[in-house]
Amino acid sequence: MSVFALVDCENFYASCERIFRPDLKYKPIVVLSSNDGCVIARSKEAKQLGIQMGVPWFKTKKNFLKNGGVFFSSNFALYGDISNRVMNILAGMANNIEIYSVDEAFLDLENMNLENSDIADEFAMHCRSLIKQWVGIPVRIGIAPTKTLTKVASYLAKEQTKRPGIFSISNNWMEIASSLKKVPLHEVWGVGKRLGKKLSVLGLRTAYDLACIDISLIRSRYSVVLERTVRELRGETCLQLDKSLDPKKQIVVSRSFSEKITRIEDLFPIVNDFGVRACEKLRKENQLCSKAGVFIRTSPFRIKDKQHSASKFFTLSSPTNDTRDILNGIRKSLPIIFRRNYPYAKSGVMLMNFSDTHVKQYSLFNADNLLKQNDRLMKTIDQINQKENLIRFASQSEVGYTAFRKTNVSPRYTTNWNELPRVNE
Amino acid sequence: MKATISKESITKALSLTGGIVEKKQTLPILSNILIEFKDNSFKLVATDLESELTIIGETDACETEGTTTASAKKLNDLCRLIPDKSNIELNLSGDKLNISTKNGKYSLATLPSNEFPIFESGDSLNSITLRSQDLKTLINSTSFAMGNQDWRHYLNGLFLKLEEGVLTAVATDAHRLALNCLDSVSDINFSGIIPRKSVNEINRFIGDDNSELSLAINDTSLVLSNDNLTFKSKLIDGAFPDYNQVIPTGDSSLLDVNVKDFVSSLGRVSILSNDKNKGVKIHLVDNNMFIRSNNADNEVAEETVESKYAGEEIEIAFNVNYIQEILNNQTNENCNVLFFGSDKSCLILPPGGEFPKYVVMPLLL
């Protein structure tokens, strides 16, 4: 019988900020999006103040700070490293693990006996205390016979007082049903608010209502995906751990600008920077792309400004991960979509139609050794730039584009020697 | 404008011209078709500004001559659904085209015919005549290798060249190349790249007809016509690559294989090939051909195909679609494949013949 655990880091970004700032314990914390635009993470205390997810920072700033709140600009270097540390611990605790997102992972606990809830709870408590002790992140753990039910268990773990942050559901239908009755329909994994609204027309209110519905009705009126969800809610395992490391299907490097840009001469170095970053990511993935694109847009929030949004895609003669090919495409494409005197607020570079570097379709009209030479050059540049960005393309901005307005970014405590926390301060 | 026409005449003409009209238009008039009645005959013209098709036919009765334009799609859909052998009356009244049948009346919006774009075919054209089925064979045996939305715009079409009495068609998407020739009694020379869409349209309106066609090409356009049809198309502005340079020469190993056996084996093996690159490996050794494929799920397929192979052992991979499309265009029972090395292109020819000639670049797997 399948048994899964879902380990979910609580208020992850806010918890990361707290690791090196114990003085912030019990204080409301919010983390802001790139450019300090809106709230993307909240501590429990911030939630209690009524701060909504995604709310624009300028709207809530005054009130939040007045209530003793602390805000941070996003520090993805820190969050990424802390996430890796948590995932490494989890990888040692189960045979198979699926890293679902930066702060969530499914564990395969195939040999666990769910009939005895003490075993599940003991495992969860051990896991929880280990992560808290070794990394300093609080986690919530849900254990159940299906992945969808682990989400339900994780939701119910929030409310646990006896064993906080832990909840397990056995394969017994009575126990599953009583758990599902406590979960609102839109909280079910794969349902959400929009589908939840549609399903509420059928009179469904809770996860239990959905689990009891006629399967054939779901398949005919909705989708096989929702049917899978219903079956999983009933305790039938439909979804296994996704262990495949699916390569990326698309790479997008985009940024909002801290100041509006109206001249193409100013835009080119920035977009070229994005192109260089995108190609570096592509090479890290060991992929080639055969299509790329560039997009620009003005700010839709500044309604008084002239509005323009456009993108231009270009196909490459043969699959490539050579930065020069992409920069060449940008050079030709950007002038086609650019309009003078429009206050551009965001742009980006997209790479798509990927293929593996070890698979190559030879071309009738290209010299075959061209790619190999380029490959060596790009690898060498990547190796040199790994430690410090010493080599840049002439068309890039001189210092590398840092568009973010980050008014209160915490140090990269765990990834930069110069930003280590100091004991004597 | 008032005339009566049989359902069969107008639907055939409408379905042919309908292919030219693009679904998404920048100008409203381009979704319309030009209709003209004159001297007991009708003329339908459709254009997408890159090409134009004119079809002339006979009316049953032409009471008043005239011209207008109406939606190509609506007209086609409507006439198609009218019962067979019906007579259809078209009557322009103000800005409405009234269509009457035995049991129905329909009124369609029109746009003035003087707004309909006229296709300029440029300077005078040198023309040759050829049988339409010969042209169709030439197109069918090569056009599948045309590029599709390639950034090298000159690959997105069929290169047609008349030189020293030989009409040559070449298509390539840079991964494979198809070339075929047709002897023509003519001392004129011309060449041009016909856009992909126009090639497909020519193939469509030729159908099973084997009438005599006049083919003319100048620097910018192509005109193809017979008694009741004229097709004009702009040519792709660009230089077609030097295809002779990529046709492999030198020492090679010859594989002689039954086309049907080869195609069916490839079909089965390709099921377990990688979805992305469709790669299959061909291993040739001692008169044996092994075809293998595998995919990301570690599924494997292998078949042996009876064949004659004289040459060194070789293992080479191809995109299976490229080989299948070429084999599907073989008219002989067997075909010859010449290998020049595992990282070099191969040449596919009919046994003992030179044309049609296909070049396929391998995959590095």
What report would you give on this structure?
The complex is a heterodimer of chains A (425) and B (365). With 425 residues, chain A is of the alpha+beta class. Chain A folds into three domains: 4-8 and 79-233, 2-Layer Sandwich (Alpha-Beta Plaits); 12-76, MutS, DNA mismatch repair protein, domain I, CATH 3.40.1170; 251-384, 2-Layer Sandwich (Dna Ligase, domain 1), CATH 3.30.1490.100. Chain A contains 14 helices and 13 strands. Chain A has helices spanning 12-19, 44-48, 57-66, 76-91, 117-134, 147-157, 173-180, 192-200, 207-211, 215-221, 224-233, 264-284, 323-337, 370-387; strands at residues 4-9, 29-32, 39-42, 70-73, 96-101, 104-108, 139-144, 166-168, 251-261, 287-298, 309-320, 344-356, 360-361. In chain A, the strands form three sheets. A five-stranded mixed sheet of chain A has the order 5-6-1-7-8. In chain A, helix 10 (215-221) packs antiparallel against helix 11 (224-233) and helix 12 (264-284) runs antiparallel to helix 13 (323-337). With 365 residues, chain B is α+β, with helices and mostly antiparallel strands. Chain B folds into three domains: 2-115, DNA Polymerase III, Chain A, domain 2 (Roll), CATH 3.10.150.10; 127-244, DNA Polymerase III, subunit A, domain 2 (DNA Polymerase III, Chain A, domain 2), CATH 3.10.150; 247-360, DNA Polymerase III, subunit A, domain 2 (DNA Polymerase III, Chain A, domain 2, Roll). Chain B has six helices and 26 strands. Chain B has a 13-stranded antiparallel sheet with strand order 5-1-7-8-9-6-2-3-4-17-16-15-10. In chain B, strands 14-11-12-13-25-24-23-18-21-20-19-22 form a twelve-stranded antiparallel sheet. In chain B, strand 19 (279-285) and strand 20 form a beta hairpin. In chain B, helix 1 packs antiparallel against helix 2 (72-81). The longest helix of chain B is centred in the first third of the chain and has 12 residues, at 7-18. Chain B is elongated, with a radius of gyration of 25 Å. Chain B starts with a strand and ends with a strand. The mean pLDDT of chain B is 92. The chains are: A alpha+beta (425), B alpha+beta (365). The A-B interface holds A 314-318, 355-356, 358-366, 368 and B 149-152, 172, 174-177, 241, 246, 274, 276-277, 279, 319, 343, 345, 359, 361-365.
